[in-house]
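Hello support,

Our group uses your service weekly, and this is the first time we've seen a run hang past the timeout. The protein is glutathione transferase. I'm not sure whether the cause is the sequence or the server load. Input pasted verbatim:
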Amino acid sequence: MMITVHHLEKSRSHRVLWLLEELEVPYQIKRYQREPTMLAPEALKKVHPLGKSPVITDGNQVVAESGAILEYLEEKYDHEFRLKVSDEASRLQCRYWLHYAEGSLMPLLVMKLIFGQMGKAPVPWLLRPVGAAFGKGVQKAFLDKQLKPHMQMIEQHLAANPWFAGQRFSIADIQMSFPLLALARRAGLEQMPASQKWLQTVQQRAAWQRAIDQGGELSLPG
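Update from on-call engineer: The timeout came from a worker crash unrelated to the input. Re-ran successfully.
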């Protein structure tokens, strides 16, 4: 049975395609279009009860959540140790960033997106000036201050290490790619040269480009 990636356009499932391309594991894509609300369609609930992407099916196995999918695929299919890290310090770093991406960083970036959209449709046009002012206020007073130490930590780490797990490319880099793209889009990386360099490096990888070819351009809302 071939792996099926249930791929939602412009979503975090790009990371799954990227990993499969890095491992050169055969797969097929089942595509889903977002609703006008930008939410996932109801059809995804037939695959997983939450109706979210990414999710994969591998035979009888259904695996959801980005980090869980990446770990599953690496453990089952990385026979040539292309992405696995061996020493304990690197494994700990890999595990930390794998869970940090969605557990700590992405919630702040999602909130930044939400508050940044409060002056736009579907907010009623009469309320948009108030919504925009409120959204900017929350970002300045709370979110930007919360994001600052995260940005400093990421930049310090990448200034000292070429990859998130240390000296070797790993699934931690694949997992952190989406938050770094979102951070670039919503906060900017002008003060993060090492992070900019890392992002440019991963986007130049042949497997990244093949994943874009298969899944479509990755364009994140601001």
